[in-house]
Amino acid sequence: MEKIKTTCVYCGTGCQLWLKTKDGKVVDTKPVMPPEFNPGRGKLCIKGWNVHEFIHHPDRLTDPLIKKENGHWEKVSWEQVITYIAERFKQIINENPGNKKAIGCLSSAKCTNEENYVFQKFVRAVLKTNNVDHCARLCHSSTVVGLGAAFGSGAMTNSIDEITDAKVIFVIGSNTNEQHPLIGARILKALKKGTKLIVADPRTIPLSELAEDNQGIAIKHRPGTDVALLNGIMNVIIQEKLYDEKFIRQYCENFNAFKEEIRKMTLERASNITSVSQKKIIQTARIIGQADSVYLIYSMGITQHTTGVDNVKSTANLQMLCANVGKWATGVNPLRGQNNVQGACDMGALANVFSGYQSVTDKEIRKKMAREWKIEAEEMDDQIGLTVVEMIDAAYQGDLKALYVMGENPVMSDPDSNHVRAALRKTFLIVQDIFMTHTAELAEVVLPAASFAEKEGTFTSTERRVQMVRKAIEPVGNSKPDWQIIALLAREMGYSGLNYQHTSEILDEINRITPIYGGITWERLQKNEAGLQWPCPDISHPGTIYLHRDGKFSRGKGYFHPISFKEPAELPGKEYPFILSTGRILWHFHTGTMSRRSKTLNERVPEGYVEISKEDAEKLQINNNEMIKVTTRRGEIEIKAKITHKVSKGLIFIPFHFEEAAANILTNAALDPIAKIPEYKVCAARIEKIV
Ligand code: SF4
Known about the structure:
Dimethylsulfoxide Reductase, domain 2; 4 domains; six-stranded mixed beta sheet; Rossmann fold; globular; binds iron/sulfur cluster
């Protein structure tokens, strides 16, 4: 047996693992030791231990496929398929002069940094559009916008290691133990050292119970009322003068306007809106206001709202108010869901920025990119492109003539799946993936990609840590690494700027034109077992453990945003009396493409379910495990009822991993006006017995 060290492909924690191989196949997984070179500290969660199980699944795509008129797939050669796509792209570009919506492209948070960089370069340099986006739009685009506006950088301010040194950990809208199990393990360790834990979540999650068992606070607020809760807490902090005036005067701006807004969220009003007792709000405010360090963690419970940007800015307000940012073990820490969603954003797989968050609307930046890419700056798109949901809408309207999807599954991951399917049927759809996903089934062309075990490159974890991905086996069948497929297509379309011989050459280019990655070189990563954290501007820089050191915010001064409370886009009423929320569970990952092909994981939780409170189940005479119907204004599904104390009366919860009970048939596509993130966490629903 041989073994190769690589990075876990399931979540953003970035655990290091060994893939063991035998006779050209990956047969086992083990955690990397010693623990100091592993964000998982020598451990893996259940997904990590079984990460090899999907690699050789018989469903792997092995050859390029083109759908014939009779609906049957025909296996074709790489030459045939690349020519076919290139011709169609050229035809669409020629037939739609001036239509900036003609072609859209979705990059992937599962692919490497190098592949995301190459993909957005192809879109911008060859297709000449900024219509490139990826699923960060659906999970953390509000973080990128909100923290960017408040601090100047939209990433975790601190590192995972600092968790155990925090005096207080405040988790709001993150089911950390299930979504990032080995970050959850650090919280457990901190509790043993005496850290106080505050958890705010509309459901009773494992961390809520831990907080209560350890003299902390568990808050169960009404879904969609995070701004009211945070403003209420800050109102108490200001009233009781627990804030840090000196820090605010020296390092922040716009405090007075912010303070005026906070005055409006009286304790009584905050309690009425959130359904949290005044006593709990006061206790929380005092703990936060009096602590030396508060490690604030949030995730999609904060971001996936029509007020996602407001929610994020409110977390930043709270941490600036008490000078809890710019120091060890204290700051604002959005946990990124997918293995490389941080890296895909860093690489510019977003409609508004090139790599390193350099704006596409900045003429000088476009000139810099054009020089490196050997194209004419004047030919580049100078406007922000379409985002994920906007591309789907444009396809539905008939404006978007082609959609190229690399490693994403919008039919399962985007809100209002029926609308997504209808939209995708109207466009020339190309899907590049390792399995025949639900999106791929609708495509005209399917390209087989290599899995993480079959290629080299880097992933960037949630704590901005760039780590190596190493090749353990040859690509399965005739599949190819994504960057090689894109390069073939670019060459066929007459562009030679993607003719790299090795992945390291792509990172060299990223180093040259992306200041925050300037010193994260291939050579250093090969030698440095623990990887490197950005910003790392040059090869003598050690990388950055925490951001905004000593009040020196990336944007200059920290900015207080006055935020007023707004209700979610859709509230329960007579016809749809329940609030539906969606999310993930420990045993599965995202749209289930990989985890549902893992024998161990799928055996543990083989099917979807809806969580419902005992009170509601009794009222509707619903039994545990009974099939029921859940309906919203978008559609309906039949799903098994799971009666649980986790949800309160009036709230139901559905994990979104399961195609046969797809939660996103139900969700609302209403968007945050700035980040364009959909409101997955709140919509109005009805539940009924099936008779
Ligand atoms: Fe993989 Fe995340 Fe589990 Fe670590 S915590 S083993 S990165 S899924």
